[in-house]
Amino acid sequence: MKFDHILFPVDFSDHSRGLNPEVEWLADRFDSRVTLMHVFEIPASWYGAGEASLINAECLRSFVVSQEELLNNYKLNVPENRIQRILAEGGPAWNITNWANEHGVDLIMMGTRGLGKIRGLLLGSVAAKVIHDATCPVWTNAMLRSKPRKPGDFRTVICAIDTTDEAVPLLRFADSLARELGAKVHIAHGVPEAETRPSRYLDFDLHAYLMDSAHVALSKLQREAGTEFPASIKASPIANAVSEAALEQNADLVIIGQGRAQQTFGRLRTHAYQIIRDAPCAVLSCLPARETVSIRETQATSQEEKEEHTLS
What we know:
The chain is of the alpha/beta class. The chain folds into two domains: 5-140, HUPs (Rossmann fold); 154-295, HUPs (Rossmann fold, 3-Layer(aba) Sandwich). The chain is built from eleven helices and ten strands. The chain has a ten-stranded mixed β-sheet, sandwiched between helices. Helix 5 links the parallel strand 4 and strand 5. It is elongated, with a radius of gyration of 22 Å.
């Protein structure tokens, strides 16, 4: 597992700049190329109402030049020959994911909130869309540290999994990355008591039974994945279980399945954004290997269909 090409979208906010040390650290660790990308949108108010625009070509050109200057002057402690700077106009989430998919990006690193109007939400809409749509891992950090991380400081990875077959490729991904970083892996899983409230009408402790079943299921998944990680199974909601485990283990990174709130990754995906918000460290959201392959095959098929349509 290597991150040869990192895409770092920036909006020049303090939160975006706060991610610099982690980008620099990973780029140094993997000798990565880094693409700095800034996506700007022309405010709708500039166009005025009706046919009359409030801006002219010169005003627009001046705005674009100012954005380009900000991007060119953005400081990142990575050798300049390994930095590429891309300026794009339009929807940020679409531009980021589309560019990443088309240019073989291995990792997207971005802030969870910035200059947008949605900073009051649990997770910025741009970050949420990128996490949902990207086919490569996405690194975010809602609790930015005040000093750069050193290779020797990276010790513990929390792998948050659900008891589904999709956990197997996620465990293997966590194992591969942890080996590259020289870290240990700890599994986190939650069994909320709220799910077992009907047990009060039964003659046995359903929650205890589900906790035991989770231990058995995790052991089976680990055997299939070829891993033997210690596990924390909490009697609490999933996001809380992950956050508690990260705090107990003083984790440097949490790995989760990418946040598609569909059935393919069970309950965990529906809690992905809350995990990112509450985690006391960086969170790496990734697609299980089999789903990544499926998405790329779909994209390839779609491209072939477009080419056939053009030829016809």
